Amino acid sequence: DLVVITKSESSMALLRDGKILKQYRIAMGDLPAGHKLKEGDQRTPQGRYTLDYKKPDSAYYKSIHISYPNEEDKLRAKALGIRPGGMIMIHGQNPKSPLSPEQAQQY
């Protein structure tokens, strides 16, 4: 199984055996273009990550942690003398919400 996020299209696809099972519109950090480099830069990571655990006590709907920073991210941050950040989650929006993902992102 694979989750593919296409930042330029603000979309997330869930794939199994190379076939799209579900597709969603998504909202990202305030500055989604480019790769996340440091803590607090409001960027969305780019690369291969593992969805490693669910966070049931999250304030956000069905939060799943991603394994950012990976080893490459850590090495880059160390070379630049910055902190890469962490605790990046993929999460949904309550299905009963009348807001679009873009509207919900503003809160």
TrEMBL record:
InterPro entries: LD_TPept_cat_dom, Transpep_catalytic_dom
Entry keyword Lipid metabolism: no
GO biological process: cell wall organization; peptidoglycan biosynthetic process; regulation of cell shape
Keywords: Cell shape, Cell wall biogenesis/degradation, Peptidoglycan synthesis, Transferase
Pathway recorded for this protein: Cell wall biogenesis; peptidoglycan biosynthesis
Superkingdom of origin organism: Bacteria
Record-linked PROSITE patterns: LD_TPASE
One matching Pfam family: YkuD
Occurrences of domain L,D-TPase catalytic (ranges): 1-107
GO molecular function: carboxypeptidase activity; transferase activity
Family under the similarity heading: Belongs to the YkuD family.
The protein's name: Periplasmic ErfK/YbiS/YcfS/YnhG family protein
Source organism: Shewanella baltica
